[in-house]
Amino acid sequence: MSPARALPDAHLPGRAAGLRAGAEDLGARASALLLSADHLAGLVQMGAHGRRRAGAGEAFWQYRPAQAGDTARMIDWRRSARADTPFVREREAEVAQSLLLWVDGSASMALHGKAARARLLALALALLALRAGEAAGIAGAPLRRGHAAGGDLALHLEAAAGEGAADDPPEFGAPAGFDLPANGRALAVSDFLGDPAPVDAFLARAAASGVRGVLLQVLDPAEEAFPFTGRMIFESPAATRRRETQEAAELAVAYRARLAERRAQLDRAARGAGWVFGTHHLGQPPAAALLWAQMALSAPRPEGRG
């Protein structure tokens, strides 16, 4: 007897209804995410990316002396008038790049809506890349091109979020276990409050692949300011650790120092790999974080420092 026939027939309608309801819920969440990300992406424009060589493009690159085979239409007569040699105005070639996005789906990101903000920023950045003719993808899924790809990316993000909630996700997350687009770009969004060693290993792998990118830390305002006072009980995201204090305010200075130390460590690791590190908290407008990430990814590669 086949596995499908092993279930009593009476169970099949209920199971099919459950699957349909789940699919409809996923579709609704993905549509809402796509609508919000599309609105957010509309506030930012992504520029073209040059490859610093002559070719078909809009941006001026350099003048060069005219050569055999150049037509009269190619001569820049204004520039040539200042010299004895005719000059040709060359434009910089534009090339479509690949953008990979990783969004932390750990239990820590589920607190206070950090995961939802991370998905919104990641998808909005992907939409900007797709509109610029680039390929974009979520870690663990194929790169996609074209305006229609945004819906697929939204479905993937929401499906991954639903699976993480159902499968008891890890307490903290780190980018690992997926391929990086050689010489492409990447965005990793997390609170980065877990073990920094996997992040360091990811950055080393990215640098070896010629991938430059951005680490974007998303935090709740309370995780920034630590406004707690009086008797408090603190638990880790998965309740594996617990600490009770009679006066939480006494922990504030040490907490903020640890947070600043973690940020400095992430910034050093990012710069060493040619990446950029930044922080965004939920009390700030998402458009500001999106614009910052877009500019950081478009800027010339910074000099790496260990």
Architecture overview:
This is DUF58 domain-containing protein. InterPro entries: DUF58. Residues 62-264 form the DUF58 domain. Pfam families: DUF58. This protein has 306 residues and is of the alpha/beta class. It folds into 2 domains: 50-94, no CATH class; 96-298, Rossmann fold (3-Layer(aba) Sandwich), CATH 3.40.50. The chain has helices spanning 3-6, 11-41, 77-80, 114-131, 149-166, 197-208, 221-225, 252-272, 286-298; strands spanning 50-54, 60-65, 87-94, 98-103, 135-138, 185-190, 212-219, 232-235, 242-245, 276-281. The strands form 3 sheets. Strands 5-4-6-7-10 form a 5-stranded parallel beta sheet. It has a 3-stranded antiparallel beta sheet with strand order 1-3-2. The longest helix is centred in the first third of the chain and has 31 residues, at 11-41.
